[in-house]
Amino acid sequence: MRTVAVVGTGLIGTSLALALVRRGLTVHLEDADPDAARTAASLGAGTTDPADGPVDLAVVAVPPALVGRVLADCQRRGLAHRYTDVASVKAGPRADVTALGCDTTHYIGSHPMAGRERTGPLAARADLFEGRPWVLTPTADTDTETLNAALEMVALCGAMPIVMDAGAHDRAVALVSHAPQLLSSLVAARLEHADETAVRLAGQGVRDVTRIAGSNPAMWVDILSANAGVVADILDELAADLGETVTALRALEAADEAGRRSGAAGIEAVLRRGNNGQARIPGKHGAPPTRYETVAVVLGDQPGELGRLFGEVGALGVNIEDVAIEHSTAQQVGFVQLSVAPSAVARLNTALREHGWSVRSV
Ligand SMILES: NC(=O)c1ccc[n+]([C@@H]2O[C@H](COP(=O)([O-])OP(=O)(O)OC[C@H]3O[C@@H](n4cnc5c(N)ncnc54)[C@H](O)[C@@H]3O)[C@@H](O)[C@H]2O)c1
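A: This is the predicted complex of the input protein with nicotinamide-adenine-dinucleotide.
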C-alpha cells in the first residue's frame, strides 16, 4: 500500500494520517471543513492536493451517522480501489452502506479502540493506535484484497487486528464501554446536590466508579445515539438486577430471621457475580488476569517523592505491575498503591520500612 486518502481529518483521521506518513505513505487529506484538512496538512499529516488517480485505500473518518453517505460519495468519485471507515459503532453504518447501494465488496468496516477526550486535528497523535486493538468487521462479500489492505493499515499503525461481526462488536462495546459510561455518570449525578460534608468523605471507591463521568457529553450523545438500542437492552437487564438488589436490601431490614437470611443471600449473590465478572477483565498486555498484591506507601505531596519511591523499588529488583494513587482529602499526603508479584511483598515491605518509608497494610 502506497497511497491513502483520509476523508474527515479530525482526531482519528489525522492521527491515522500522521502514522501512515511516518511509515512513508502518501496521504491525501479531505474534510467538509477545509480548515480541518489544512490544519492536518500543516501538522505533517499529508497533502490537501487531490490524488491523480484512485488511491490504494480511502479511510472514511467522519461521525458514524455520515459514514454511509460519505462512502457513497467517495465511491461515486472513484476515489480509491478499497475503502474502510473508523466509526465507533458498526451495525448502523453497515446498514446505511447497504441501503445506499454502495459497493460492499471493496469496503470493510473498522474501529480503532483508541481515542481521546478531545476531538479535531489538533488533538491528533501519530502513536494513538500503537498497541491498541483495532476491530475489523468484514462480511461474506468483502474481498480478500480489501481485508488485506485493512490489515496492512492496522499493522502500519502498530495496532492489533481483531476480526468480529458488526453486531457482536456493537454489543461488546455497549457492554464494556457505553453502559459503564452511563452508570458512572448516574452514580456521579447522585453527588450533584449531595451535602458538602458527604462529598468530602469521597474515597477511592467512588473516585474509581466515577472517573469516566468527567467525559464530554456532546461526544457521548453522538456515540450513544449510534448504539442506543443495544445499550438500552443492557440497561434493561441492569434495571432488573437493580430491582432484585433493592428487594434483597429491603429483606435485610425485615423483622423475621428468614427474611434477613434471604436478603443476605441475595446481596451476596450480586457481589459474587461481580467478583466473577471483574476477574474476567484481562490483565496487563491482555494476559489472563493475574493476582498481584498491593504494597501501600504514604507519600508526602512534594516534587520528586514518587520518583524516589520508584527508584528504590527498582533498585530492589521489583517490577511495579501497576500503580494507583489515593489522595488524602484532609492532609498533604497520598497513598501510593504498588501492585507487585506476591513473592516480592515481604521483601519490599521490609526494605522500604528500613529506608524510612511509611508502609501501610491493605
Ligand atoms: N474520538 C474517539 O475517541 C474515537 C475513537 C475511535 C473511533 N472514533 C470514530 O472516528 C470517527 C471520527 O471521530 P473523531 O473523534 O475523529 O471526530 P472529529 O470531530 O475530531 O472529526 C470528524 C471530522 O469529520 C469531518 N466531517 C464531517 N462531515 C464530513 C463530510 N461529510 N465529509 C468530510 N468530512 C466530514 C468534520 O469536519 C471533522 O473534521 C467517528 O466515526 C468516531 O465514531 C472516534
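The two ends are 53 Å apart (CA to CA). The chain is about 45% helix and 15% strand.
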